[in-house]
Amino acid sequence: MSFNPYVPRPIDRPTEVPLGAHADLTTLDEAKIFAAPDDPADWPAWREQLTRWRADARARLGYTGDHYDEIAGDCFSVCLAWLWDETLYDHDRGEFTVEAFLDAARRDFGGFDGVVLWHAYPVIGLDERNQFDWYRDVPELPAVVRAFQDAGVRVFVDYNPWDTGTRREPGADAEEVAALAARLGVDGVFLDTLKEGAGELRKALDAVRPGLVLEGESRVPLARIADHAMSWAQWFADSDTPGVLRAKWFERRHVLHHTRRWHRDHLDELHSAWLNGCGVLVWESVFGVWVGWNERDRAVLRAMRRVQASHAAWLRAEDWVPLADHPGAGQVYASRWTHHDQPLWTVVNRGADHDGPWLLTEARPGRFVDLVTGAELTVTELEDGRVAVGGPLPAGAIAAVVATDTPVPRHEPPAGDPSFPARAAVRARTPWSPLAALPDDMVTVDGGRHELTVRHRVRETGLYGEAPYVDEWKPLPPRLHHTGTLRRPVRLGRFAIDTHEVTHREYARFLAATGYRPARPERFTAGQGPADAPVTGVDLADARAYADWAGLRLPTEDEWQVAAEAGLLVRREPLVWNLTESEHSDGRTRFVILKGGCAYRAEGSDWYLDGGPQPPDVSVKLLLTGAGLARSTSIGFRCAADLPEGALG
C-alpha cells in the first residue's frame, strides 16, 4: 500500500469520539487527538464522553499520578538542537557558546524551557564509535549542561535504541543511558523512535535521581503516561474544529511538544498547543537541513511563552473545559482553565479576520483583558445575564483572556512575515594553489566542462543543504533513504591530484618539519599508524595544514569524481573516506562532502552513515562536529593543486 506523504496517514488522524450513552469508550485509549464535532450542539455530549473515558481509563489502570509529584516546574517550549549548531559552538575557536545560543533563543522565540542536545545521528556509523561515545568524548559537556541549567533551561539527551551495529558497551543500554544521565547531570532523556522507555530504563533512571523525565516520540501508550511526564507529539493531525490531546486530557500535568519537522508553517500545531495548554518542539536544523521558523510563528510562540510563564498553574489545572463559551458564530475557539476560582481562556482564531464576540460567559468583577496584547476587550451585557466578550481578532491570531483589576502590560500583537526564511548552504572558497612543478605522485587532469551525475542516499540530511521532505508528514520507505540523483554541470580548471592518499609516514614528516600542534590533540592520531597506510585521525584543519605545507590544497568533490571516473586514482588499504575541499555552512550547520567509501560499515540500521566501498559518483554529506570528534579512523585525504593553462606540459 502506498501513502501520500503530503497528507496525514490514518494513524496520524484524530479519533472520533462516540457520543452514544452506552458507547464503548476504550476505543479512545490509543488516540492521538480526540476529534471534536463540527456542530456546537454536540460539544456538551462530547465533553461528557471525554470525562467519562478519563475516569474509566484512570480506574482501569489504577492511576495515581505520583510520578508527576517528583517533577518541579513546567517545560512548554523545547528546542531540539544539534550539539554543534554554530549558535551553540564556535567551530573556529573550538568553544561552546551557551550564552550566545540563549540570547538568540530569547530574541527569536522568547527563550526555551528545555533543550535536547542531539549529538550522533546522522554522523553515527562513520566508525565503530557508538551513541554513548559521541557524548562521552566531549569533555566539557557536563559544564555545558550546567550552563543551561543555571539559566533555567532543562537539558535532555537522546537515546537511539537502533544503535546496535557499532561498538558495544559492557552494560545493557538501560544501564549506559542512566550512567550517561548521571555523569552529565541532565534532566531527562528523549527516546528516538520509541514511544516509551518502560521497564529497565525507567528503573535505572529512577535509581540515578527521582524525577528524571522520559519523553517518547509520538503517541505515548496510555499505561506509560504514569511514568513518562512528557511526549513528543510528532505528526498529530487535528480535526477541523480543534480537538483535545489524549495524553494531556488524561493527565493535566503531562506536557506534549507539538512538532512537524519539515513543515514551513507551524500555526496549526501552535493553535493546538495553545488550546491544550501544552508545548511545542522547535526544530530549525533537522539533522543538518535548515527548516527554520518564519517570523509570524516565532512571534506567536513568544506571545504564548509570556502567558505560559505567568499562568502555568492554569494550564495544568484539573478544571479544564475545551471548546468553552463559544460565541455561536465564526471559527474563534477557546479553552477555559480555572485555578483558584479564577478563569483563563486560551483563544485562537482558525478562520478569517474576526471582529465580534470571542466568548459568551458569566459577568465577572474587573475588566476583561487579553494578556497577549494587554488590550481591554469589549464587553456587551446580554439579556440572560451573561456577557459577550471580544473585539478584533485577526485570522490566525491567539489571545488569553482574564477578568482582572490589575494593570496588564501592553504588547504589540504577534505578527510578521509568514514566508519561509530560506538559508543557503554556502561553500567555502577553494584556495588557489598553483604548482611550479608536477610531483611524481600526482597526475594532471585537463580542465573544461563536465556533466557530473552524483548519487547519494536521501536521508533527512539531504546533500547540499536542501530539505528533501518539504511540508511532508512522514515519508516512508522506499521514499525514505532512497538513492537520489543530482546532475551537476561544473567547469573545472586544469588541476593536478595525488594518485594515492597521504600516508601516516608522510604526515609524520610534516609534523617533524613544522612542529604543527593540532587543536584537541587528545583525538589526533595522524602520523602514528602503519607507515604506508592512509593517514587517519585528521579533521579538515589538520588536512589543510598538511596541504598548505606541501604547497597544495584538498581536491573539490567534483575534481575528485572527475579524476576517479577517469581511472586516475588509486586507493590505499585500509580503504578510508577522502575529505574534499567542499566545506559548506548555512550559518547554523557545517558539513563537508566525502568521497570514495571506506572499509568500515555499521550494520543493522538504515540510520547509520553510509560505509563500505563506494563508486566515484557517490557523495556523502558529513556534518562537522567539534571537540576533535570529526577525526575518525575512517577518514583520510589526498591533495590537489591548480595548473594554469599551458603550464607543466
TrEMBL record:
GO MF annotation terms: formylglycine-generating oxidase activity
Domain Sulfatase-modifying factor enzyme-like: 490-574
InterPro entries per the UniProt record, alphabetical: CTDL_fold, Sulfatase_Mod_Factor_Kinase, SUMF_dom, SUMF_sf
Domain of life: Bacteria
Protein name: Sulfatase-modifying factor enzyme 1
Source species: Micromonospora chaiyaphumensis
